[in-house]
Write a structure and sequence with these properties.
single chain; alpha+beta; 4-stranded antiparallel β-sheet; 9 strands
């Protein structure tokens, strides 16, 4: 297995060096599609050691774009993509459109700070935009109930978008109010009543 990985790495380096040798130290993007842009040909350097490429947009307009803008996704069209979005946003009441009716709709799933959220506007814990953290939804499915206010869900491997059931564990900040024995006994009974079914999971 290790030998195969090393062999693939060696072949990739050889291929990259061969491409650089043919195209003067730059990768050839000719024919590549980046958003609405299709690369037609190399347009030369821009004076800052950056390669420029002549591209044609889906709308028919041509633009000269540098390599980094294409490969990073910074430039996806001749400018018509932003114009089209702007036009959609001028439609009456677009800001109040939710779900698939909103021009920014992304299939009901979004990622923020590494966490995946699902669009479920009727969920009691949905945020103002109607989204609920996916890891909370997975844990609620495991428990068969909604999470309590003092409960949180922890990712065991630290990867925030890894929401597999086996990678999640339930945490609770619930604790007794005092230190009297009767308070602790009452609290212990409440814990057993709440989480007794979770033992062994």
């Amino acid at each position: 297995m290790a030998f195969e990985i090393l062999d693939r790495a060696r072949r990739f380096v050889e291929f990259r060096n061969a491409v650089k040798a043919v195209y003067g130290g730059r990768l050839d993007l000719t024919g590549g599609v980046f958003g609405r842009l299709t690369v037609l040909e190399y347009a030369g350097p821009n004076g800052k050691q950056s390669s420029m490429w002549r591209c044609v947009c889906e709308c028919g307009e041509e633009r000269v774009v540098r390599t980094s803008s294409l490969t990073s996704g910074g430039t996806k069209s001749c400018g018509c993509l932003k114009r089209d979005l702007f036009v959609k946003q001028q439609l009456p009441g677009w800001r109040n459109r939710t779900g698939a009716k909103n021009p920014n709709w992304n299939g009901g799933k979004q990622c923020s700070r590494g966490y995946i959220s699902i669009y479920i506007p009727d969920h009691p814990k949905a945020n103002s935009n109607g989204y609920v953290a996916e890891h909370r939804l997975v844990m609620e499915g495991v428990l068969g109930r909604s999470l309590r206010s003092e409960e949180t869900v922890h990712h065991k491997n630290g990867v925030r978008n890894d929401n597999r059931e086996e990678n999640l564990e339930l945490w609770s900040t619930f604790h007794p109010y005092g230190q009297r024995v009767e308070d602790k006994l009452k609290w212990a009974k409440e814990i057993l009543a709440t989480y007794g079914d979770c033992a062994g999971r």
